[in-house]
Predict the structure of Mitochondrial inner membrane protease ATP23.
Amino acid sequence: MATTVDNPEAEVPLKPTTESPILSIDLSNETPEQRSKREKECKLCEDWKEEIIQNNPMVKTLLGAMNRAGCNFEKKHFRCVPCNNSGSGGFSSEEGIILCQNHFRSRPHMEETVVHELIHAFDYCKYNVDLTNLKHHACTEVRAASLSGDCKWMREFLRGKFNIKKQHQECVRRRAILSVRYNPYCQDEGQAIDAVNSVFDSCYQDTTPFAEDHK
Ligand SMILES: [Zn+2]
């Protein structure tokens, strides 16, 4: 299957280091129109962020579980920023959760992104995920894609038509491979496929901190 850098669903690469290409937008040549657009996007992202953190049940569950595990993760760890690639968000231990304010199609899209990235943050907190290890990265991507609703559209679209569980699994697998492919420690697609396949079954089954039947 093809993975390209243009894929609109691709995730901002999880950088194990502090260098982040998504923050490298040069604002010095910004026109007044561009500035006004950026400020509007930032305001909307901040407003939605506030509401999502307050109201989204999955976000509340994840934040509660992280606090109980001793990781204080709060509003200031979510940052709305303009991004210059096609992803909608990212997580790194240094930067927390990055929300790409210029790439959200809708509030539900942003909610899914927040949940997806928060599952990475939870895994980092709870399981000491080492993002330079492709199997670790693959596991947290499988969980994030499976639990965040990234593949929900497919479940709904196919309801009653095919073997839904199989389709959901294949969607999760495909998205996890795509994200691992962007890890700077991943050399080619074969490595990403191997990493995801080697951890898929156990990580797909692990629905912590949600109830068993969440998917
Ligand atoms: Zn991810």
